[in-house]
Structure formats: structure tokens, C-alpha cells
Design goal:
Layout (H helix, E strand, L loop, with lengths): L7 H12 L3 H14 L4 E7 L5 E6 L6 H7 L25 H7 L2 E7 L6 E7 L2 E2 L3 E3 L4 E7 L6 H4 L5 H18 L4 E5 L6 E3 L7 H10 L2 H4 L1 E8 L2 E8 L4 E2 L5 E5 L2 E3 L2 H10 L9 E2 L1 E6 L5 E2 L10 E2 L2 H18 L7 H18 L28 E3 L2 E4 L12 H6 L6 E6 L3 E6 L2 E6 H18 L5 E11 L2 H9 L1 H6 L3 E4 L4 E8 L7 H16 L5 H16 L9 H13 L13 E5 H7 L4
Length: 604
Amino acid sequence: MAIRRLDPVLIDRIAAGEVVERPASALKELVENALDAGASRIDIAIEDGGSRLIRVTDDGSGMGRDDLELAVERHATSKLPFDDLSLIATLGFRGEALPSIGSVALLEISSRPKGVPHAFLIRVDQGRKHPATPCAGPEGTKVEVHGLFAAIPARRKFLRGNRAEARSCADAVQRLAMAHPHVRFTFTSAETAGFDYVPARVEDAVLARIAEVLGAEFRVNTLRVEAERDGFRLQGFAGLPTWHRANAAAQYLFINGRPVRDKLLAGAVRAAYMDYLPHGRHPALALFVECGPREVDVNVHPAKAEVRFRDPGLVRGLLIGALKQSLQKALHRATPAHGRSVSSYLTGRMNRAAEGHYASPAAGLDLQKLPAFPGFAEGGAPFCNDGACLGETLAADTRAHDEESAARDLDAPLGTARAQIHGCYIIAQTRDGIVIVDQHAAHERIVYEAMKNARAGKTIARQALLIPAIVELDRRDAERIADASGLLADLGLMVEPFGPGAIAVYEMPALLDSGDAAGLIRDLAAALAEDERSVAPLEQRLDHVLATMACHGSVRSGRRLGAQEMNALLREMERTPGSGQCNHGRPVYAELKLSDIEKLFGRK
């Protein structure tokens, strides 16, 4: 078959497949053009998810007749003044967006520069260009895209439903709005919720705009992130580890004001939060990286969604280090939503009880035989009412508020301990509420952070066992432990093979309880087997082993603690990074404010 040149319109339609994947792709290109034109207000309207109509109106610099004629030609752009692809200082630069859109839709552009008496209108209908003509219009530019992919049914049938496409369009606009908080954005659609983001008049306009997009909860569940290294500057806000999501949709990453979905940056976020989140959960954050244009190539993806850095290791290290530092500075801080969720649950339960959905627990029930009956620790005479004793008194001395130290602890973030219930939870009183702490989860995080610090300083203290513990294992598990004996020795655990399928434990880290060496070795074997199936770096595997060891060295559920022990645990939590969640990502404590308690009892 002879080689021939393709028709120019067909060439444009093939190019459109790279640039205009769906309505959101076309909308993103049009909004970026408006921002590059210096617009202070951008109004967007779509119909049928953008497949029927996309309209973008801005008050930017506008275009005259000659510029308008060139704007719909391929490889014509105003954003590359020096023909240097390494000096791209705008959001759009490829010179393909408008002609590509015009090749697969009816494209109408009306524009009027400042100081010109009237606007000009140009139309491109499925690749057929019409000359520009005078028209009425305000200063700025209005772009309308009608019938996207109407002449290409094969492309149109791959679009999702109108509602899903409308949500994608809204997400594309919101990402750009977050990076440009001083520009007003309005979005209108019949298929999804619209919005009107007015420029913030506060000092921290970026946080105000992010909170508009992610919700007001983000403002109270966020940590500020700031770092600078070798010409790269990182700023933004990262969500608390206890305020996580089922997917990564709430992660917004920007390079020089350009929203990107970059694997390198996403991997850095995962690595930074590795120690703090439950498996399968993702943080919410918005991070902005600024650097010189020569340090990043934004021309590697047709839709400009990915970038390539000159020194990717530097950028990855900057993100991981800055995020970890911010998370460590948060110490015990956790999302305040825990307290509100407790209040909401209790309020709902009381309301249902009032409506008759719950029978009275006193109706013929033996409270001491209930599985949830409070197991108060020893400490005094049982509480009795009309001869029926319901249990023992609290482990903490309820008169502790008379002591000077307890009064001082009331002002501490986690307050002063008042009780231990069910052998697992510490009840602490603060000046304006109560705090409920999971003692095992709290101590687990404290031991883990202590062991990490000791490993970094190579100062893990060991404790020799009086009699070596012999642990019987599956042969493969025993081999895994034996192969990792050098690594475990660096972590304070001395083991040796003891015949086929057995391991002898001679020394354990001093921070751990040496009474359950067998359980620790079995859990470590399972952790090592899991690491064999992953491609995690050595640092991550070491932390996995340490987390397993820390779980065995922490205060177990069911252990009764005295008032001094509980208060010591609370104070240590306040000093320990990440103590708002355990090694598995579960919350360590919940706070209930006095105002919430008063609402439960109708005092407010």
C-alpha cells in the first residue's frame, strides 16, 4: 500500500485525542489560557457534563483580530517568547489546545483587548476555520465549545455519564482555583453542585481557598508544611493522620502553580505517612512546589498532567522530610472530629432510647454478667445501691483534683487521669472536657518512637534472658528469622537457629517485655513473610519490624494501672511524635468537650 499524507483535519483530530481526552481536559486548557491572560474573574458553565456546551468567560487581556486568527492555528502560541522549551513560565504552552478542540467540536471565540472599541468573533467548525468578524462584547475573552466529539461517535461513546463528566470538570476547575486564590471562579452545571469562589481578603488566602474546596473541616485538621532546599520551595497544608480518606482524591499537588498527578510526588506522600495511616487509607493535603523553570520539564505529557524533574531525588527528599517534620511537630495532636463523633453517637443513642427503640437495661438483667460490664480496677469499696453492688471503684483516686500536681495537669493537653475502665481505657479530665485514651495503642506508639530513635543512634539497649527461649516455627518461618538475624541483632534481638524449625532467643530489647518471646518471634516471622512479597525499601521494612516489636513491648489491654502510671503515660504521649494514632493508624484517644456533654443533658 502506498504511503500518503493524512488530511490536515484528520491530523488535528488525532492530536485532539492526546490533548482533549474528555470534557474536563478541554475545560482545563481553556481555564489555563484565561489565567495566563491575567484574568481576575473566570466564569464557567457546562451542559450535559460538558459534551453539549463548555463556556469560559474571563476578564483577561483579550485578543485582537490578528491574534484571534493565529490562536486557532496549530503550533501558534504567545507563551513561548524566546523559543526556549526550558523557560516555560505559563500554564499552557504547546499551541495545540484550541485547534485540537476546534477539530472535534464547534469552537467559538469572541475577544476584546483593553482600549479597543469592539470585540471580534472567530468560529472553527469540526476543523473548518471561518474568518474573524466584528461583534459586541466586553473586554476579555469568551470561549464556547459546542457538541464535543459530535462528529466522532467512536470517541463520544467512551465518555462516562453526564454526572461523572460534570464532576470531573468541577474537579479540574477546583484544582486550578486552589493554586490561584486571588482569582474569582464561578462554576455552573445542572449535573453537579456549582460554586462561587470569591478571592479571600485574609492573610492566608491559600488556606481559605483550600478550605472552600475541601470543606471547613480541613482548616481544623491540617498542619502547615514549609521547607526550602537548593532552589526548591515547598509550602502547603497536610491533613492530620487521623483525618484520612479511602482514596487519594483529596491529594492536591502543584508545581509552579500547575496542578499535576505525578507518581514521584504521590510516592513521597505515601512514604511520609507510612508510619501513621492504616493500610489502604490516604491523607488529605495540598502542597505547592516552586522552582526555577529549568529545574522541571512540563512538556513530557500532552495534557500537562505529569512533570519531570532534573533532580527527582532532591524533590522526593524535600517532600518526605518536610511532611515527616510537620507530622512529628504535631506530637499527640489528633482530629477534633473524634470528640464530635462521640457526642453525635451518644446523642443519637439517647434520642432512640427516648423514642422507645431501646428497653431499659434494668428490666430483669444481671449487669455483672453483661459482656460490656465495666471492669474497674482495684482501688476501694464497690459501689452499691439498695444492696446491689455494681462493681469496684475507679483505679485512679477521684480525689486527685485536690492535689497540686493534679490541678496542674488539668491544664495539660490530655489532662489528668481520673479512672481506668474495662482494663483498657483511661478517662482523663481537662479544663474544658474529658479525654478517653486507649492505653495499649498509646504505649505502643511511645515504645515504637523510642525504638526508632534508639535505632537511629545505634543505642538500643539489650536485656539477656536468664534462660534462652526456644520457639518452634514452620521451617520457612524459621529460615526467615535466621536469615534476618543480623538485622534483628541491630534492633536488640539476638536469635540463633536451634535445629530444624526452631529459633533460640538469647537477648531482647530492654524496652520490650521478655515474657512473650515466642509470640514476638512468630509475629516477626509473619512480618518478614509479608515484606518478601512487597517492594518496600529497607527503611520501610525496618520500621515494619520495629512496629511489630513495639506492639509486644507496650502496656497490654487488661492491665490495671495506678493514677501515677496513667498520668505518666499521658505526659509521655504529649511529648511523643505521632501519638495521636498507634502504629497501625488507629486513633489513640477521643476528646469530648464540656459543651458537648452539656448538650447531651440538655444544659445548652
